[in-house]
Amino acid sequence: MSYDLKREEEVKQFTENLGIEYRFGCYQEKKPEVCHLLADYLEAIKKDYKKAATVYKSNCDDYNYSKSCLKYGNYAMMGRGRDSADQNEALKYFEKGCELNDPVSCLHAGVMLTATGPGTTVQRDVPKGYNYLKKSCDQNDDKACHYLAGMYLTGVPKNPKEYNPHNPEKNANIDFLIRPDMKQAFKLALKGCELGNIYACANVSLMYKKGDGVEQNLDESKRYFQIAQTLQKGHETGQTLQFQQGLS
User: Fold this and answer.
1) Which residues pair with 176 in a beta bridge?
2) Residues 152, 178 contacting (CB under 8 angstroms)
3) Phi/psi zone of residue 81: left (φ > 0), alpha (ψ -120 to 50 degrees), beta?
4) What domains can be seen in the chain, in order of their start residue?
5) DSSP assignment of 230-246, as one string?
6) Cα 29 from Cα 39, distance rounded (Å)
7) Residue 60 to residue 51: CA distance in whole angstroms
8) What is the rounded end-to-end Cα distance, in angstroms, of the chain?
9) 98 within 8 A of 105, measured Cβ to Cβ
10) Is 212 helix (H, G, I), strand (E, B) or coil?
């Protein structure tokens, strides 16, 4: 049967049939990829976030479907489809998604375990968080590579309250969990840039300009600045732009 999607009643019939199809594939055929589609359908079409949360959670718990672990982690973080937000519940599902090799789950778990500041209820564990971020970057998540580069740019102090971002000389004697390492920072920033991260490209440009972690090269600095600008324009137009490729 074909539908005329310009007609409102046929659009409604199409979406209802889609829901029936997804429910059958999930509950009768027990296909985890279809269960995830059902949760997406409940979220995007029905706007029933509570039911969507239930399906994402069970699909992660029962079928180990990594993308559903990520989605339920996001729901727990925001308090969507739930009575309240729960950062530790979110971390639990991001960690499971990461164990199932979802790079974005690894990114979120890593950020949560290494972040500091007000509103954070998760117990800080920088070594564990670092490993999650590295796994994400190794799987080519540009944000994870950029985040790791930032950790090496400034270092990660054992006690964040001792760190003085405005006077680096005062940081010489504090204990670091990850010491500043400009060569590592450059390597990770370059990878993040090659994966299309605007901010990583901007950092590569600045590091070439200053000679931080790489031999000073003003021509390369200018080139990476232009790459960052091109990526920014692609982002503003809403088009996907790959590294060093023009808009189609």
Assistant:
1) 157
2) yes
3) left
4) 141-248 (1.25.40.10)
5) HHHHHHHTT----TT--
6) 16
7) 14
8) 35
9) yes
10) coil
pTM: 0.87
Taking 50 as the threshold, does the pLDDT of residue 247 lie above it? no
Q: Average the pLDDT over each of 113-122, 188-197, 231-240 and give the range with the smallest value.
A: 231-240
Q: How far, in Å, CA of 144 to CA of 110, rounded?
A: 8
Q: Is the CB of residue 181 less than 8 Å from the CB of residue 134?
A: no
Q: CB of 189 within 8 A of CB of 203?
A: yes
CA 125 to chain centre: 18
Query: Which residues does 101 contact at the CB level (< 8 Å), separation at least 6?
Result: 66, 139
Calpha distance 107→16 (Å, rounded): 35
Q: How many C-beta neighbours within 10 Å does residue 152 have?
A: 21
Give the DSSP H or E segment for 156.
strand 156-157
pLDDT digits (tens, 9 = 90+) for 3-16: 444 566 766 777 88
pLDDT tens figures, 173-186: 789 999 999 999 99
Q: Two tokens at 183? A: 């060569």
Q: Each residue of 69-111: pLDDT tens digit? A: 999 999 999 999 999 999 999 999 999 999 999 999 999 999 9
Query: In 10 A of CB 51, how many CB atoms?
Result: 15
CB of 55 within 8 A of CB of 61? no
Residue 191 has pLDDT above 70, yes or no: yes
